[in-house]
Amino acid sequence: MASLAQPGQRSSCWRGAIIRAGAPSKPLELRDLSSSLLWLQACSKANTDFQMASSIISRDVAAATASRSIARLMSLLRLEEVLCMLGALGGLGSASPYHSFCRRKAKSWLATSLRQGMKSGLVRPGKDPGLDVKLMLRICVEDSTAELMEKEQLAKAHLLRALDIGFEGSGTLSLSESDLVGMPEELRRDWAAAGWFTGAYSAHNQKLSEGSTGRSSLCAGKYTVPTGRDSMDRIMPYCASASARQRLFEAYHQGFSAGEVNSAALDLLRVRQSLARRLGFRSWAAYELRPLAAAVREPDAARQVLDRCWQHAQPALAPMLQKMRQLAIGCSKHSAGDEVAHIDEAYLRALASRESDHLKLAEFLPAEGALKRMLETVGRASNVFFRHVPGQPTGIATGWHSGVRVYEMLDGPPSAAGSARQDRRLGFVYVDLYQRRWARRQLAPGAVLIAPGHVYVGLHYQAPSYGSTKLLAPEDAITMAHEFGHAVHMLCMGGCMQEYDDLPLDVQELPSTFFEVLAAQSSVVEEYARHHASGGPPPDTLARSVQQGPQFFARKLRNLSVGLGLHSEEFDAGNASPRELQAAAVAQWQRYSPIKAHPGFSPLGEDAGMYLALGANQEAAKRWLSPEFATRLRSQLLDRPFPGQRLASL
Ligand SMILES: [Zn+2]
User: Which residues form a coiled coil (predicted)?
Assistant: First the structure.
């Protein structure tokens, strides 16, 4: 662990964090980046440098200095955002009044200087590297457009809050033992009366930590089941009682159709419609799709891609549907004849596809071991090597939370698998396995480039109870592979945060999706899955259960269809009511489902709700066409020799 910087040197820490001079030599010490005042001083310095630029006589030098200073100011603001998220700057939870003051100050400097720079032509959008095009767009448009952009952000935040309430579920159902018939005990355990005391820990972990005597007390009595998404995920596939499934399904979707979700979604769609037209696009979908690959650049083309996927998926989907229809006969009052009712769909699919194997595989995914082996697997496939940094620089001395594990990422040998490792460091990865106990809400997993050469990967699994082993669901392991894919990409590209942000969404997600697909292959599962007690690999049938079937992609199609349809000219948000929005969403969903939607169903209660709120990142358009980006694409993706032997050895 490197020593802490002296107070006098600390203001230069900010500069050091945003400017990369080769690979970083030591892990980032958050403690050095915890002062609002020093941060503001660094911003002030960048702003002064910008002001000085206009007095430079050579136009080229002046432009280079101006855009470099503006880029620094932007990087500092971005870094500030990430550090606040990590709780290292600005106060715990929400920002302190003093920090809020500093932030406002820095933002106003940026807005003034940026306007000045664009007016004088010293700062050129899309041409100078490291500049936040989104922000520049917001500053150079007319006030009325800027106001719409502001409104769009607010409406989006409002919809996300409404969705959160729906996902959480606002009520509970009281279910008896016979209502939950067929459900494995570990799935219903936290709903039992005694379960409320330990509800914070995942079901699997409790099963491990409790002795056999603890069990009987939980089996008797009623279960209090929240009507949220987590209960949907457990009950719909595994509960054999058709009436219990119906009660939960209807209560859950009622939360979406009767709550604020539809009206919040409508508000958002209306603002986006006006904003897209103001920016010269026919619809928000047209605006968002523009920076993506040619095949989906227009809404109509994107629709054709979805239609083609659906057609091509038919032969793969048919056998499962056939099996489900056979099982449906006489299975439930909802399904007439061999028709599969929407309420029975997940249950029949689980029966037909042995989804319970999925649960058993968790025994082979103890979190610590899976993390270590997953890093090895991702490293082998991308020709890098992760090494745990001994004497972790976490805890009070450096500002990192004590649960954070630090790894350095080293480059692999130049080509053939046989040659010696170079051990050239590409950067550091900070892995946060568990959600903090005091966290109010579940954080989504994600990878963030904190500063050049430093990536934070927050997996945010629920922590196990004291002394017990955390077991991961197979989806958790896949998520891990996905986020490490982002980390490898961020450190290999070697650019600053803004340069990574400017990559179009499809390019950003390509490497991470590759690792996700890789981690789902049964032969790769055998590499990273080991039984928590015996250490043995999983049997073949279990390893195969991780692979996403055609059903998974069909579900994706339905959710994408809702987002695309509601944002395109097919739906006129300006003249629609919340009920019409729901009907339009169902129609979009139905396009790619052989099973008829239940009358109470709200597609926004599935992933479609999040897709609708978040949208894609459309701000990279100008950067995408720059020669600099093309060079990067070549060197990182197209020209890069892929170590085929290493992949084969997996
Ligand atoms: Zn991703």
Answer: none
Query: CA–CA separation, 317 vs 322, rounded Å?
Result: 9
Sorted by sequence, the CB contacts under 8 Å of residue 451 that are 6+ apart come out as 17, 18, 20, 28, 79, 497
Half-sphere exposure (CA, 13 Å, Cβ side) for 598? 23
Structure tokens at 114: 């940026």
For the chain, give the percent of residues with pLDDT over 90: 27
Residue 491 Cα, ligand 1 centroid: separation in angstroms?
15
pLDDT in tens, 405-415: 899 999 877 65
Spatial CA neighbour of 245 closest among 358, 165, 341, 354: 341
The pLDDT of residue 394 is above 70: no
Tokens of 69: 């200073």
**Spacing, Cα 509 to ligand 1 middle (Å):** 5
| Cα within 13 Å of Cα(314), Cβ side | 7
Q: In whole angstroms, what is the distance from residue 205 CA to residue 219 CA? A: 17
**486 CA to centre of ligand 1 in angstroms:** 7
What is the homologous superfamily of the domain 261-354+552-614 according to CATH? Neurolysin, domain 3 (1.10.1370.10)
261-354+552-614 and 361-544, same CATH topology: yes
Between CA 535 and CA 368 the distance in angstroms is 13
Q: What is the sign, positive or negative, of the torsion defined by CA atoms of 557, 561, 564, 568?
A: positive
Give 575: exposed, middle or buried? Use CB within 10 Å, 0-12, 13-18, 19+.
exposed
Tokens read off for 295:
């095949």
- What is the per-residue pLDDT across 299-351, written as a single tens digit (0 to 9) for each? 888 899 889 989 988 988 898 899 888 888 866 666 566 788 999 998 988 88
In the reported structure, the alpha carbon of residue 5 is separated from the centroid of ligand 1 by a whole-number distance in angstroms of: 35
User: How far is the centre of ligand 1, averaged over its atoms, from the C-alpha of 511 (Å)?
Assistant: 9
One-character DSSP codes across 79-132: HHHHHHHTTSSS-SSS--HHHHHHHHHHHHHHHHHHHHHHHHTSS-TTTSTT--
Please give the distance, rounded to the nearest whole angstrom, from the Cα atom of residue 7 to the centre of ligand 1: 38
Ligand 1 centroid – CA 453 distance (Å) = 19
Contact indicator for 224, 248 with CB cutoff of 8 Å: no
640 vs 71, more confident: 71
Using the CB atoms, write b or e for 11-30: b if 16+ within 10 Å.
Answer: bebbebbbebeebbeebbbb
Q: Are 380 and 650 in contact (CB under 8 A)?
A: yes
Judge whether residue 505 has pLDDT over 70.
yes
pLDDT range class, residue 25, cuts 50, 70, 90: confident
CATH topology of domain 361-544: Neurolysin; domain 3 (1.10.1370)
Separation CA 452–CA 4 (nearest Å): 20
The interface predicted TM-score (ipTM) is: 0.99
SS3 461: strand
Task: Find the 371 Cα to ligand 1 centroid distance in Å.
Answer: 18
Q: Domain-by-domain residue ranges, the chain?
A: 9-140, 172-210+220-241, 261-354+552-614, 361-544
d(CA 442, CA 462): 9
